[in-house]
Amino acid sequence: MRQVYLAATGQNRGKTTAALGFLDGFFREGLAPGFMKPVGQRTVIQDGVAADEDAVLMKVVFGLPDQLAAMSPVHIPRGFTKSYIAGEVVEDLGARIRDAHATFADRDVLLVEGTGHAGVGAVVGLSNAVVAAMLGTPAIIVSEGGVGRPIDEIVLNASLFRAHGVEVAGAIVNKVQVDAQPGIGRTLERGLARQGVPLVGILPYRPVLSNPTLGMILEGVQGETLHRGPDLDQVIGGVAIGAMEPGHMLERVGPRTLVIVPGDREDVILTLTTAHLVGPARGGTPAEVGGVRDPNGPAPPDGHDGAALGLVLTGGYRPRPAVVDAIRAADLFATLVPEDTYAVASEVHDLLVKTHAGDHEKIETIKALVAEHLDIDRILAAATVAPEA
Known about the structure:
Udp-n-acetylmuramoylalanyl-d-glutamate--2,6- Diaminopimelate Ligase, Chain: A, domain 1; 2 domains; five-stranded mixed sheet; globular
């Protein structure tokens, strides 16, 4: 069995994106791959089994036959770290990982996905570098954007892997603004080569890979649905916080924007519903929307459509019935949540960078992107045969 350890330089660098693309490539090569996330920090319950959400994602998307307990053997729930430091965790967690790893012996290739940067997990004796060394797995490191920052991050993480005797087989730089940076691939390749790290490839920035659908927003914030809008499968184009005067708010609302706004800011809500109804072609602002007069609602600025895709109304403040009617008349997605705007914005940020099994458009885009820009044969060449137990 060949195997490779997919690491990253930090959170939200694109490791899950790369993992989806790797597995898809392995299947396209006619191989029988396996997937394992030895240490998970984001645990979900699937069919009554606790597992890291990425293990669940890979199992669902690719129909992997392996048990979730093997794909995700160790979880770090809230409070676990303190219990470990206090000596209250007596189980040999490394043995649990090794036992799970052994169940993949009949696979052609095993993709092992790490958690965060190379040192994450060190507090419980299971950093990515330690786990990769334990399993005898070479590492490929994912970073993102720019030139100096990704190289610096990759070199820093590579040093910890190498200190544990782990071969660094290459690096991937994700979310690269290729059109704005001609020759960026060659520059990154040369810069990393000076540090003894081969560049496996770069992945161009694609907005759809960072943004969730309205349905995912609804599921994530778990609010009360005031109006579903025309299509929950629409991908949001961006997020804006409605904490300013209505006219200034419109300047920050681009195509398919999700606006997070307190439910008692009816001036902002009505301005957005008006802009959505009027659109850029007709101009002007109607005197009434849904039976509610909006004296402060300006027309969208020149050259800007001001058309939001949906609203997350925060604070538990329910707008008056006539305002809700205006939202429905504009056919805007809207959900009401009890949390304050800051807390909701943090939740939405987490959704912006995660991939879910139901996000079919995003997953197909990821597969196509990796197939076009990364050489799977090169990834397979970097994978080494697992040592005998």
